[in-house]
Amino acid sequence: MSIVENVEPRIQNVKVTSDAIIAYLVDGRVLSVPLVWSWRLSEATPKQRGRFELIGDGKGVHWPEIDEDISIEGMLHGVPAHRPQKSARLSRPEPNGRGAPSSKGARRVRRSTAKP
What is the C-alpha to C-alpha distance for residues 37 and 34, in angstroms, rounded to an integer? Predict the structure, then answer.
């Protein structure tokens, strides 16, 4: 009879270098992914990269100062974090020059500031 033990990967320690995120697993494996997989970590200072917490009994890592989370499953399956895209409405100037949507075709309502 054999006993099968649950061997879910768990992180024991993490190191972030100038080009890689390196996870040391409790079973002795070492996993490395490119630093650019996390735009938040790649833009963080070395000091911020060094301040992390293991979460979920080693299933992930959290960097509180930059609000970044990386799971061991994401690293194993090759899931990089994508930078959020800016809304088209916010990224280009509007015709009225105010950065707000144009009121083209909209009826304007003039309000008086005079007191009755």
Answer: 6
| Contacts of 92 by beta carbon, 8 Å cutoff, 6+ apart | none
- Structure confidence by residue, pLDDT tens digits, 73-105: 999 998 888 888 876 555 455 455 544 444 444
Instruction: Name the residue range of residue 33's domain.
Output: 11-77
Which helix (H) or strand (E) covers residue 49, if one does? helix 46-50
CATH code at 16?
A: 3.30.2020.40
Specify whether the backbone of 76 is left (phi greater than 0), alpha (psi in -120 to 50) or beta: alpha
**What is the separation of C-alpha 15 from the centre of its chain, rounded to a whole number of angstroms?**
17
